[in-house]
Amino acid sequence: MTLQHSRLKMLMRYYLEDGRRVYTLKLMHNGIPTQSAHPARFSPDDKFSQYRLQTKMRFNLLKLDEKEK
């Protein structure tokens, strides 16, 4: 274990197996990096929201007026 790994907090991580999330504390699973199971931090001063909205509008992923069926 390197010094860098010893400073990391023990956080939940996951990897996909048969389309399902399998949760673990390991950084690697069978040589494949695991993903963080925690959402990104929220900031009210979001500097990149404009670009996220443009991307969602470009690919028709923005669901403002969609009603539940």
TrEMBL record:
Gene3D superfamilies, alphabetized: H/ACA ribonucleoprotein complex, subunit Nop10
InterPro entries in alphabetical order: H/ACA_rnp_Nop10 (IPR007264), H/ACA_rnp_Nop10_sf (IPR036756)
Alphabetically ordered keywords of this record: Ribonucleoprotein, Ribosome biogenesis, rRNA processing
Keyword rRNA processing applies: yes
GO terms of biological process kind: positive regulation of telomerase RNA localization to Cajal body; rRNA pseudouridine synthesis; snRNA pseudouridine synthesis
GO molecular function, one term: telomerase RNA binding
Cellular component per GO, a single term: box H/ACA snoRNP complex
Keyword rRNA processing found: yes
Domain of life: Eukaryota
Similarity remark: Belongs to the NOP10 family.
Protein name as annotated: Nucleolar protein 10
Organism, scientific name: Hymenolepis diminuta (Rat tapeworm)
